[in-house]
Design brief:
The chain is α/β, with parallel strands linked by helices and 328 residues long. The chain is 45% helix and 16% strand. Helix 1 (7-14) packs across helix 3, helix 8 (164-178) packs parallel to helix 9 (193-206) and helix 10 packs across helix 11 (246-258).
Length: 328
C-alpha cells in the first residue's frame, strides 16, 4: 500500500524547508513569500497532499469541526435540524460530525470525550441528558450549545429552541375553545425540560377543562402505539389526545385504526413538531409546527459569535404555530 505524502515530500518537491511548508499549512501564510506559496501549493496538488486536521487542531487549540450529538438519529425532525446546521456551517469553512447519543447517558459522556479529543470548535447537544461529566465540561468550556432541551439548573450555556410551555398552552387553549373533553397527554420523559414544559403548558391552557390523564412515553412510534393500544382499548369515550411529538401520534393513529376507531370521529389527535413526513404520509395530522430548518442558522450564529457574550443574548427562541388539519 502506498504511503500518503508527507510534509517532507512537499518540501522536497517544492525546494523549500519543511518548516516553511508547515508554516503555510499551519495558517501562517503571511510569513511565507508569495512565490514560495505558489511552489508549495503546486507541489501539494501534484502529490495529493492534505494536511492533518488533528495536527492543525493541536497547534491552534481547536479544529474546524463542530460535533452535534442527537438523541435519536432515526427521528426525522432531529435529522432535519442536523442537516440545517451542516448547511449553515459551510460558509464558515466548518465541518460537522453527527453522533447518536441514543438517549443514553453513558453513551453521551463517551461522545463528549470524543468531541474533546477532536478539539471541536463547538459541541451541539440536541436533547442533552444531565450528567456530572456534562456539568464539569460546561464549567470549563464555553463552546457547548443546548438545543431543544434547556440546560439543567446550574448550567449556564447557550440555548436554541421553542417556548415549549407556550406551545403546550396554545394546544390546551385550542382544545378548550373546541370543547374537547376526556383529555390525555402522552408526553415524553418528564425529566426532560421540553417534555415537562409542554405538559405543564397544556394543562394550564386547558384551565378548568381538566382533569388530564398523563401518560409518559418515549418519543417513538412504537411507544405511541403501545400506549395508544392501552388507552383506546379500555376507553368507551371519545378521547382528546395531545402527543409529545409526531412520532408518538403516528403510533396512536395506528393503534386506533387497528381497533376500528376513526380519527377524529372517535379520537382527537394532536402532534408536535410537524416533521416533513407529514406532507407525504400524514397530511391529516394536526400538530404544532416547529421550524426545523431555522435551527441551523440560529446555532451557527452562536458558534460564530464572540466569546463572553451576555447570557441573555445566548438564548434564541424560535417561533411556532398550530397547524390544524383533519385530526383535531
Amino acid at each position: 500500500m502506498t504511503k500518503p505524502p508527507t510534509v517532507r515530500d512537499v518540501a522536497r518537491l517544492s525546494g523549500v524547508s519543511t518548516a516553511t511548508v508547515s508554516r503555510y499549512f499551519g495558517g501562517k501564510a503571511d510569513a511565507v513569500a508569495p512565490h514560495t506559496i505558489e511552489s508549495v501549493k503546486k507541489a501539494a496538488e501534484i502529490l495529493g497532499y492534505t494536511p492533518s486536521e488533528i495536527g492543525r487542531s493541536l497547534r491552534l487549540a481547536r479544529s474546524s469541526v463542530v460535533v452535534m450529538l442527537v438523541p435519536d438519529a432515526s427521528n426525522h425532525f432531529t435529522a432535519d435540524v442536523a442537516a440545517s446546521l451542516e448547511n449553515s456551517l459551510k460558509s464558515s469553512g466548518l465541518s460537522m460530525v453527527l453522533a447518536n447519543a441514543a438517549e443514553n447517558a453513558e453513551q453521551q459522556d463517551r461522545l463528549l470525550a470524543d468531541a474533546q479529543g477532536l478539539r471541536a470548535q463547538a459541541i451541539v447537544l440536541q436533547g442533552a441528558i444531565d450528567t456530572p461529566r456534562l456539568r464539569e465540561l460546561c464549567s470549563r468550556q464555553k463552546n457547548i450549545i443546548f438545543v431543544n432541551r434547556r440546560p439543567a439548573e446550574g448550567i449556564v450555556a447557550p440555548y436554541v429552541g421553542v417556548d415549549n410551555f407556550a406551545a403546550g398552552m396554545a394546544v390546551g387553549q385550542y382544545f378548550a375553545e373546541r370543547g374537547y373533553v376526556n383529555c390525555v397527554a402522552i408526553h415524553g420523559p418528564k425529566n426532560y425540560s421540553g417534555s415537562s414544559e409542554r405538559l405543564d403548558g397544556f394543562i394550564a391552557g386547558l384551565g378548568d377543562r381538566g382533569p388530564v390523564k398523563r401518560v409518559e412515553a418515549a418519543y417513538t412510534m412504537e411507544a405511541g402505539y403501545e400506549q395508544g393500544r392501552k388507552l383506546l382499548s379500555k376507553s368507551k369515550r371519545r378521547l382528546s389526545i395531545f402527543c409529545g411529538n409526531d412520532m408518538i401520534a403516528y403510533g396512536v393513529h395506528r393503534a386506533a385504526l387497528e381497533l376500528g376507531l376513526a380519527v377524529p370521529d372517535d379520537v382527537i389527535l394532536m402532534g408536535f413538531d410537524d416533521n416533513r413526513l407529514n406532507d407525504w404520509l400524514a397530511p391529516w395530522l394536526s400538530t404544532v409546527t416547529v421550524p426545523a430548518f431555522d435551527y441551523g442558522p440560529a446555532i451557527a450564529r452562536l458558534i460564530e459569535a464572540p466569546q463572553g457574550q451576555p447570557e441573555e443574548a445566548a438564548k434564541i427562541i424560535l417561533p411556532f404555530q398550530i397547524k390544524i388539519r383533519q385530526s383535531a
